[in-house]
Amino acid sequence: QVQLVESGGGLVQYGGSLRLSCGASGRTFSNYVMGWFRQAPGKEREFVSAISWSGGRTHYGDSMKGRFTISRDNAKNTVYLQMNSLKPEDTAVYYCAAAALIGWNPGAGANARNYNYWGQGTQVTVSS
Predict the structure, then answer these.
(1) What sections of 12-119 are H helices per DSSP?
(2) Half-sphere exposure in the Cβ direction for 103 (13 Å, CA)
(3) Do residues 38 and 45 make contact, with C-beta atoms less than 8 angstroms apart?
(4) Residue 50's pLDDT is what?
């Protein structure tokens, strides 16, 4: 089992920044591809970003490229999501997740079905 706890969400103005954190406990953190997803009210869950085991490879959803940065610190069992230039359409509950993937594949990292463990989410609200 892997337990994931997100933090860092909140209310921010248009154009502002937030840094989300996701702390993991349980099994070896570095054995998992880590991902961020989000879900807005009335919408389907959306892929945000994924990062490989050592952090050397990353993948982003199209609307996040150039604005969001994913990173991880395996010594701290933590994955981060730095979000800049936030827009009202970024408003959602953000979830981190862990996937026991074999081999890096951006497509696989973007598929929520491949993730074995999920956090409870943190709310991000961007006001206009």
Answers:
(1) 106-109
(2) 3
(3) yes
(4) 97
Sheet bearing 2-7, strands edge to edge: 2-7, 18-26, 78-83, 68-73
SS3 (DSSP) at 114: helix
Chain-centre distance of CA 97, in angstroms? 7
pLDDT digits (tens, 9 = 90+) for 40-66: 999 999 999 999 999 999 999 999 999
Residues for the chain: how many in total?
128
Residues 39 and 122: their CA atoms lie apart, in Å, by 10
| pLDDT tens track for 109-124 | 999 999 999 999 999 9
Q: Are 119 and 96 in contact (CB under 8 A)?
A: yes
Q: Say what percent of the chain tops pLDDT 70.
A: 100
Query: 84: which DSSP letter?
Result: -
How many angstroms separate the CA atoms of 79 and 35, rounded? 9
Which residues, including other chains, have CB under 8 Å from residue 111's CB and lie 6 or more apart? 47
**CA distance readout (Å), 47 to 23, 27, 123:** 19, 24, 16
